């Protein structure tokens, strides 16, 4: 028998899911340097280029450097019935990506695992097998 409760929230019923849309986090990868800090926010602060004289003894816990955490990828809601090519411009604007729209592609990604690239000419509902295979692995 299937439970109607959400495993993350045992006291609440599972939320109803909209079958015409898919909400997920989106981000872009910089192909030139995939390890670059790819965001539209300014770079984290860098230490000043000065020399300091320090009097001993040094307390190792007295000096801390805090850098801001990278922002979480924003949420975007896709229509499952429209071709992805018609929705790509909205994702491009949301991310403020520096890439040309003609060079963009969509790839599934979850918890460090890269999935297949999606066909931009097809809708999400037409590529349901790709999502199911990715969820199973």
Could you describe the 3D structure shown?
This protein has 137 residues and is of the alpha+beta class. The chain has a domain at 21-27 and 74-137. Helix content is 12%, strand content 14%. The protein has two helices and four strands. It has helices spanning 88-95, 128-136, and strands at 21-25, 75-79, 107-110, 113-117. The chain has a two-stranded antiparallel ribbon with strand order 1-2. The protein has a two-stranded antiparallel ribbon with strand order 3-4. Strand 3 and strand 4 form a beta hairpin. The protein is globular and about 45 Å long. Residues 1-15 and 37-56 have low confidence and may be disordered.
The percent of residues in helical segments reads 10-25%
Low-confidence stretches: 1-15, 37-56
Helices, by number, come to 2
In total, the number of strands is 4
Order of helices and strands: EEHEEH
Protein name: Formin N-terminal GTPase-binding domain
InterPro entries: ARM-like (IPR011989), FHOD1_GBD_N (IPR041387)
Pfam families: Formin_GBD_N
Organism: Popillia japonica (Japanese beetle)
